[in-house]
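Continuing the batch. This is chain 6 of the set; chains 1 through 5 are on the previous pages. Same settings as before, nothing changed between runs. Recording input and output for traceability.
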Amino acid sequence: MIKTGFGDFYLGKIYSARWLTECLSRGRMVPCDEYFLVTNTNEELAKKLNIGKKKKYTIMEGIKLYELITNQRNSQVNLAGFWQKIAQNSFLPERTAESMK
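Output for chain 6:
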Protein backbone atom coordinates (compact mmCIF):
# COMPACT_ATOMS: atom_id res chain seq x y z
CA MET A 1 0.00 0.00 0.00
CA ILE A 2 1.29 3.47 -0.89
CA LYS A 3 1.07 6.12 1.82
CA THR A 4 -0.18 9.49 0.65
CA GLY A 5 -0.81 12.83 2.32
CA PHE A 6 -2.34 16.17 1.52
CA GLY A 7 0.90 17.13 -0.23
CA ASP A 8 0.08 14.57 -2.92
CA PHE A 9 -3.18 16.29 -3.92
CA TYR A 10 -4.44 19.68 -5.04
CA LEU A 11 -6.88 21.71 -2.94
CA GLY A 12 -10.43 20.43 -3.08
CA LYS A 13 -12.33 17.20 -2.88
CA ILE A 14 -10.44 13.91 -3.10
CA TYR A 15 -12.13 10.80 -4.45
CA SER A 16 -11.11 7.17 -4.46
CA ALA A 17 -9.50 5.86 -7.65
CA ARG A 18 -12.21 3.19 -7.57
CA TRP A 19 -14.58 5.87 -8.92
CA LEU A 20 -12.56 6.09 -12.14
CA THR A 21 -12.30 2.34 -12.58
CA GLU A 22 -16.04 1.96 -11.94
CA CYS A 23 -16.84 4.61 -14.59
CA LEU A 24 -14.55 2.88 -17.08
CA SER A 25 -15.94 -0.57 -16.41
CA ARG A 26 -19.52 0.65 -16.87
CA GLY A 27 -18.65 2.79 -19.88
CA ARG A 28 -20.32 5.87 -18.39
CA MET A 29 -20.00 8.35 -15.55
CA VAL A 30 -21.39 7.16 -12.24
CA PRO A 31 -22.22 9.40 -9.27
CA CYS A 32 -19.07 10.16 -7.31
CA ASP A 33 -20.63 10.77 -3.89
CA GLU A 34 -19.99 7.28 -2.52
CA TYR A 35 -16.32 7.51 -3.58
CA PHE A 36 -15.65 10.80 -1.74
CA LEU A 37 -12.79 10.50 0.75
CA VAL A 38 -11.93 13.94 2.15
CA THR A 39 -11.55 17.61 1.21
CA ASN A 40 -7.99 18.89 1.08
CA THR A 41 -8.00 22.35 2.64
CA ASN A 42 -4.32 22.44 3.61
CA GLU A 43 -3.01 25.28 1.43
CA GLU A 44 0.55 24.88 2.71
CA LEU A 45 0.88 21.21 1.79
CA ALA A 46 -1.46 20.99 -1.21
CA LYS A 47 0.03 20.70 -4.69
CA LYS A 48 -0.06 23.83 -6.81
CA LEU A 49 0.01 24.39 -10.54
CA ASN A 50 3.40 25.72 -11.54
CA ILE A 51 2.19 27.97 -14.37
CA GLY A 52 3.56 31.21 -13.04
CA LYS A 53 4.10 32.95 -9.77
CA LYS A 54 2.18 36.10 -10.73
CA LYS A 55 -0.91 34.52 -12.26
CA LYS A 56 -3.29 32.24 -10.44
CA TYR A 57 -5.11 29.68 -12.55
CA THR A 58 -7.49 26.96 -11.51
CA ILE A 59 -6.52 23.38 -12.25
CA MET A 60 -9.03 23.23 -15.11
CA GLU A 61 -7.70 26.50 -16.57
CA GLY A 62 -4.17 25.11 -16.33
CA ILE A 63 -5.19 21.93 -18.14
CA LYS A 64 -6.98 23.92 -20.85
CA LEU A 65 -3.95 26.21 -21.31
CA TYR A 66 -1.66 23.18 -21.53
CA GLU A 67 -3.91 21.62 -24.20
CA LEU A 68 -4.04 24.84 -26.20
CA ILE A 69 -0.29 25.39 -26.03
CA THR A 70 0.64 21.81 -26.94
CA ASN A 71 -1.84 21.78 -29.84
CA GLN A 72 -0.22 24.79 -31.51
CA ARG A 73 0.86 23.86 -35.03
CA ASN A 74 3.81 26.24 -34.90
CA SER A 75 6.21 25.86 -32.01
CA GLN A 76 6.94 29.61 -32.20
CA VAL A 77 3.80 30.92 -30.51
CA ASN A 78 2.96 34.61 -30.96
CA LEU A 79 2.19 35.27 -27.30
CA ALA A 80 0.22 38.50 -27.75
CA GLY A 81 -1.91 36.88 -30.45
CA PHE A 82 -2.19 33.67 -28.44
CA TRP A 83 -3.71 35.38 -25.40
CA GLN A 84 -6.01 37.48 -27.61
CA LYS A 85 -7.26 34.32 -29.34
CA ILE A 86 -7.98 32.64 -25.98
CA ALA A 87 -9.93 35.68 -24.76
CA GLN A 88 -11.86 36.19 -28.02
CA ASN A 89 -12.90 32.54 -28.21
CA SER A 90 -13.79 32.39 -24.49
CA PHE A 91 -11.54 29.37 -23.93
CA LEU A 92 -11.16 30.61 -20.35
CA PRO A 93 -14.45 32.33 -19.51
CA GLU A 94 -14.27 35.61 -17.59
CA ARG A 95 -10.56 36.03 -18.38
CA THR A 96 -9.27 38.89 -20.47
CA ALA A 97 -6.14 38.62 -22.59
CA GLU A 98 -4.47 41.22 -20.39
CA SER A 99 -5.19 39.30 -17.19
CA MET A 100 -3.55 36.15 -18.61
CA LYS A 101 -0.30 37.70 -19.89
